């Protein structure tokens, strides 16, 4: 009876663990489902080192079990003394050589891949200037948000990183305040963003993997950097090359045309924004904000401040009391607005859209909804 209960407990524990492990396999978030060259190499190293570890642990466990079973007093008698092997030459050689061989098997691919992944030769030309043929993103990590500047285009975004698929995307990483770490689990990393020096590496995003992940990967800060470290997330929008080029073109066109608010609320909101928020936030795509994220394409974002679902209600909550959402963030207390003013600013920010496609999707969704409603009426 007791035995079967122990077994039941064991199976219950295992099924709970299995459920947890099932969560490890998301296409857009997991190092165990690599989505590009670097991620695949890192995954290979994980599998290689775990296999070697399992081999060692397994061998030791089995040998130990055999020894215990074979040397039971009931079997060999009270007076039995096993064969003494201290200082045995052959054994000493065997158990020194095997670990050395295992370490060599582990070391060669690890060292080779580590150096290969740090190879950013294609990023600069022979004259030492940034290579025009390569996509280069200069990343700056702030407490608790990310800024992405496109080297050749001068385009600046924050929180949402847009990259082309099936080619090397180079990153120059630095930290603005404290040390952070840049990590896109599916694609690879992590690499520290230091305050005193730039770290460079590249990532590749496979197009088919990006499509499986709905073209959206998750990025994270992987170095404890303050109270809101765990909320320092960003999104990676991985697009085919033509769509990526289109996005860059939209961003630049936006710079030329500028953006004027549509609705009357938004117009008033724009004025309030210019007075109270412009000191830290920029709404032109080529201008890094002074102390806060660039908000040029804020209306296209997936999330607000990297953590809240993107809608007007949450935006109002954020502007009203950012501290309750991201403790220690650097926007808290920087302005004084009443509820009415906050609603108008929010209306203005929701209108800041650059991605023309996303507008079409919105329109399409509305059209489909309208159609569905019509059908509903007929029945
Ligand atoms: C002192 C500088 C400062 C001022 C002034 C300021 N902000 Fe911010 N803002 C920040 C910082 C810093 C962040 C990033 C916070 C974080 O994520 O940790 C931020 C984040 C945001 C975000 C989220 C951005 C994103 O990328 O998702 C919005 C929206 C925003 N601010 C709106 C406003 C509005 C509206 C005002 C004016 C009423 C304003 N801010 C005034 C510094 C400022
Ligand atoms: Cu951080």
How would you characterize the overall build of this protein?
With 379 residues, the chain is α+β, with helices and mostly antiparallel strands. It folds into 2 domains: 205 residues, Sandwich (Immunoglobulin-like); 101 residues, Cupredoxins -  blue copper proteins (Immunoglobulin-like, Sandwich). The protein is 45% helix and 17% strand. The chain is built from 11 helices and 12 strands. The strands form 3 sheets. A 5-stranded mixed beta sheet has the order 3-2-1-5-8. Strands 4-10-9-6-7 form a 5-stranded mixed beta sheet. Strands 11-12 form a two-stranded antiparallel ribbon. A hairpin with a 3-residue loop joins strand 6 and strand 7. Helix 2 packs antiparallel against helix 4 and helix 8 packs across helix 10. It starts with a helix and ends with a helix. The C terminus is likely disordered. It binds heme C and copper (II) ion. Copper (II) ion binds next to loops.
Which helices and strands, and how do they pair?
Elements: H1 2-22, H2 37-70, H3 73-76, H4 89-117, E1 135-142, E2 145-150, E3 156-158, E4 160-164, E5 168-175, E6 180-184, E7 188-193, E8 199-204, H5 207-212, E9 216-221, E10 233-239, H6 241-257, H7 264-276, E11 303-304, E12 308-309, H8 312-320, H9 322-325, H10 339-350, H11 356-378
Parallel strand pairs: 1-5, 4-10
Antiparallel strand pairs: 1-2, 2-3, 5-8, 6-7, 6-9, 9-10, 11-12
Helix pairs in contact: 2-4, 7-10, 8-10
The chain binds heme C and copper (II) ion.
């Amino acid at each position: 009876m007791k035995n079967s209960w122990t077994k039941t407990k064991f199976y219950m524990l295992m099924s709970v663990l299995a459920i947890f492990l099932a969560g490890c396999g998301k296409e857009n978030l997991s190092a165990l489902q690599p989505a590009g060259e670097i991620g695949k190499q890192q995954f290979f190293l994980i599998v290689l080192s775990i296999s070697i570890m399992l081999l060692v642990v397994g061998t030791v466990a089995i040998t130990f079990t055999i020894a215990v079973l074979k040397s039971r007093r009931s079997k060999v008698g009270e007076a039995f003394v096993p064969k003494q092997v201290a200082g045995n030459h052959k054994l000493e050689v065997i158990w020194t050589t095997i670990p050395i061989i295992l370490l060599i098997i582990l070391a060669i691919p690890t060292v080779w891949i580590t150096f290969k992944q740090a190879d950013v030769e294609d990023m600069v030309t022979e004259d030492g200037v940034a290579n025009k043929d390569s996509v280069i993103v200069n990343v700056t990590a702030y407490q608790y948000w990310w800024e992405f500047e496109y080297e050749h285009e001068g385009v600046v975004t924050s929180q949402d990183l847009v990259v082309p698929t099936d080619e090397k995307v180079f990153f120059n990483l630095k930290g603005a305040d404290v040390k952070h770490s840049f990590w896109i689990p599916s694609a690879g990393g992590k690499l520290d963003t230091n305050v005193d020096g730039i770290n460079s590496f590249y990532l590749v995003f496979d197009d088919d993997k990006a499509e499986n992940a709905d073209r959206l990967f998750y990025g994270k800060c992987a170095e404890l950097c303050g109270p809101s470290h765990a909320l320092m997330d960003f999104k990676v929008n991985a697009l085919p090359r033509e769509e990526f080029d289109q996005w860059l073109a939209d961003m630049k066109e936006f710079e030329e045309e500028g953006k004027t608010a549509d609705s009357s609320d938004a117009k008033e909101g724009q004025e309030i924004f210019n007075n109270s928020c412009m000191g830290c936030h920029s709404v032109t795509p080529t201008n890094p904000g002074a102390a806060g994220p660039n908000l040029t394409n804020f209306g296209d974002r997936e999330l607000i401040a990297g953590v809240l679902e993107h809608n007007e209600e949450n935006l109002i909550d954020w502007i009203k009391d950012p501290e309750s959402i991201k403790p220690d963030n650097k926007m808290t207390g920087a302005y004084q607005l009443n509820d009415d003013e906050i609603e108008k600013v929010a209306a203005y920010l929701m209108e800041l859209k650059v991605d023309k496609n996303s507008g079409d999707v919105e329109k399409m969704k509305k059209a489909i909804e309208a159609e569905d409603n019509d059908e509903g009426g007929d029945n």
